């Protein structure tokens, strides 16, 4: 048994399909299958039931999955702890960012990193939440700030603070938006489909059997604010930004959606 085999086991369990797990781990399907067989032989139990459309965990597989996840998490903790103790990490750290640097306190974060690890080089890359998650899983990013609560078992998630988002509309729409139907029939300014703001808008409207009539895509929250203020469409904004914009007369907060 090794960590690579356990990672394959955990990923197949999450994906429910050997091919999908192979794609996520950038390994071949036969390699993933061989990892599972090796574990089954070593453990003396069957981990998955093969089905026409994929695989599902057996009872033994379900009981062992949590242990496998703990072993993987412990191995990452051990690696990071050892690096921290050395205090001499020489590496380039790639971090995905969202929102604005001041709100994320990026200056403080990077200053603290450089104080602890003198040789660290930090490279920041703008990436909406879903893209940031994909890039961390693919190894393109070492970490990423995201909105929401990623559930992928291969990620370690550190909650920072809760964010409250509200629906905002152009000032020129005052008195015209009375129902969700009215709102859905207007244009929206949203992040790309993998962005959490895009997903929130579609989730909120689909819960009422509605969808945005049209969408203008922007990959930065500051752009969304400008688009709403320019009358392009409705959007979601972080509440503090929305109240600031509403107080300055740039837009209106629609009270029904948050």
Description:
The protein has 258 residues and is of the alpha/beta class. It contains eleven helices and ten strands. It has helices at 3-15, 18-25, 29-43, 59-86, 101-104, 106-116, 129-138, 180-184, 196-206, 221-229, 239-247; strands spanning 48-51, 54-57, 92-97, 121-126, 143-144, 165-170, 187-190, 214-217, 235-238, 251-254. The strands form four sheets. Strands 4-3-5 form a three-stranded parallel beta sheet, with helices on one face. A hairpin with a 2-residue loop joins strand 1 and strand 2 (54-57). The N and C termini lie far apart (48 Å).
Q: What is the string of helix and strand elements?
A: HHHEEHEHHEHEEHEHEHEHE
Helix content: 40-55%
The major sheet is characterized as: 3 strands, parallel
Structural class: alpha/beta
Gyration radius over CA:
23 Å
Mean pLDDT: 89
Neighbour order of strands in the largest sheet: 4-3-5
Amino-to-carboxy terminus distance: 48 Å
Shape: flat
β-strand percent reads 15-25%
Helical region count? 11
Number of strands: 10
Query: Uncertain segments of ≥5 residues (pLDDT<50)?
Result: none
